[in-house]
Amino acid sequence: MDEELERWAKAWRSMEVKHVSIMKRAQAAHGYEAMWQGLLAAVLGSGVLMVAMRFERLAAMGWHQVLIPVLLLALGGWTLWRSGRQVALARARLVETPLGFVMDLIRLRERELAGWVDKRVLLPGGVLTLAALAFAFDRLARARAAGAPWAFDGGLLGLLLLFLVALVIFGIRRVRYLRRDLATLRELRSELEPER
Question: What pTM was estimated for this model as a whole?
């Protein structure tokens, strides 16, 4: 009888450790998601402000100078709205058990992974990025042809290209991490499911 009680005590301590570990991981993941949502909201707000302040100047340069920022802001707004809706839905489904926290963490990781690899995000984002780069190269070529100083525009274009390369590298690494983490979480879910 003492051996059986000891075995149950070890199992209980193990479950407590798993529960605390799962909760800490869930809190960290939700904090990370909230940080990205806040960052996206700040970028959208500053983007709207910049487009509003320079609307007349952009419109004078051509319709494409207004269309691309507006479409990028619309895509960002849709992404932020969709993400907020998914978070609210996930919180409504949360059950405060170890299995519930694991399921919530799995859904959170799947949402983030979809943000990196979903065609509904990649296609419009890629098209708008390529269009913005094409117009930036066109503007730089016109400035060079007119003999205007182009160092500032060239520097901005170089910075944009560097940012895009860094984003692609970060995205590849993040997707690999998310896939590994999802595999681990699914294993943990399979361990916890019989205990329901």
Answer: 0.68
